[in-house]
Design brief:
The chain is mainly alpha-helical. 77% of the residues lie in helices and 0% in strands. It has one domain. It is flat, with a radius of gyration of 24 Å. The relative contact order is 0.04.
Length: 94
């Protein structure tokens, strides 16, 4: 959308995808944003029914300190750090 501010009119006619593409995407996302939410609800309902029926966990009772020893702390720190360093600039862009 900022391209039309930088280029002259005769140059914009040469690149219609750059001009109309953002506007078309904006129209699709804004006008149809509501049904994108509603289309997920049937899948969520099916998952709420099927997951408790078919998920069998082998639960072994143990102390909390033993459970903390089984956590991959280094992997968790790397994953959280890399996800944060990816998402913060992505949100700052707009």
């Amino acid at each position: 959308m900022c391209l039309d501010l930088l280029l002259e009119e005769h140059l914009l006619k040469m690149y219609p995808g750059y001009v109309f593409g953002p506007y078309a995407l904006h129209a699709i996302l804004i006008k149809r944003q509501r049904w994108i939410f509603w289309i997920n609800l049937p899948f969520i309902g099916v998952a709420f029914v099927l997951v408790p029926l078919f998920l069998k966990l082998n639960f072994k009772p143990s102390r909390f300190s033993e459970q903390l020893k089984r956590v991959d702390w280094i992997g968790s720190v790397i994953f959280i750090g890399s996800t944060t360093s990816f998402l913060i600039p992505l949100t700052w862009v707009g």
